[in-house]
Sequence to fold (414 residues):
Amino acid sequence: MTLPDEEIGDLHGRQMSGFKDFYQFVAPTRVVAGRGLIEGLGFEFSKEGAKRVAIITDAVIRGTGLIDKVEQGVRDGGLEVAAVYDGVPPDSDAGVVVAAAEQAKAEGADAFLAVGGGSVMDTAKLSNVIFTHGGEPREWEGYYGLPRADDGLGRPFDLAPLACVPTTAGTGSEVSFAAVIKDREEHLKFQVADFPMYPRLAVLDPDSTRTLPPAIAAATGMDAMTHAIEGYVSREWTPHGDAYALEALRLIRDNLERAVTAPSDDDARGNMLIAANLAIAPTSCNAIGIAHSLSHPAGAHFDVPHGVANAINLPWVIEFNAAGGTDIANRYRDINELLGLETGGDDATGAHTLAEHVRGMVARMGLPSRLSEVGVPESGIPLLVEGAMGDACTLVNPREPTEEDFAEMYRKAL
Ligand SMILES: [Fe+2]
Fold:
């Protein structure tokens, strides 16, 4: 059954096809992708105005020797390394953000270079805000809250130049304007996002994911897949975002499992860096969904890694959403077609086919398939439901979930 356009437009204000009433799309980060780019880091970053660079990273990455190469690359371009902060934990918090900003300030840095996964890059973004504008991290919580010219009505003031070298292929944080940071006392993750937080430069070099453990490559790759699928099916979908999401899914289809099972495959790892980059683009216009609403509180309360949580939750969300209407199920059918899956049958069948495909990938890559395997107790569900209901991603999901819907999805995923 296909709904006429006027009915599609009426479903809870949802508009899953046709010419949209409004959207904006932003992708301002300069991306350089290729081999051997770490050696040319200073050359590229100098074009963004960097002179004295504060490097933000974590101890594990520093231990691989990558930071030595990065420092050499920075110096070879005529820039100075002002500081190296390597204290970012897997789930960065407000205290770390402040410490990194203070070190950069004390050492006279004028630019930030993040070398790491999502936690490192998000730390660098928010450290840059504190470095430039001062204040405490939570004071900047929310969207579009950075200082602007003309009494707040004009162009936002620039931050220091930020370049990112992602060492996982998943979050896409190197081309997004959001930082997700943990508040450890409050057991929640807060977001800060504004246009100046877009990194000026993203450097995608397969050398930077050479030592990535397969389990992390799998989890972060599933995060990218979740961004692409949720972006494509979100009520905030856009034609621009669709183009990015579908190409991301093509690259994920051809490269994710290769990159996990054959970590020495430079082409697969390089293509996954690009896929993660493309997959995050729809989120610039808020196109995301409730796999993320389910995953955020699981990370905040039970430390479930973000990509693992998404890999577990995504199939259940696909089946839930597709039951919300044929216009939604048809978006999943497009994805089935791209992935070479069956597209026939009713809405539930199509969604189940895609969900089973995702479950199969998760199993083949050796990721956990149950929340109970990663430390979530059944007694935690009410707390998780509360977090999911309040999550911003819930508002843009194509089907509106109730508390009971969320509880049921958690129970199924448990
Ligand atoms: Fe994500």
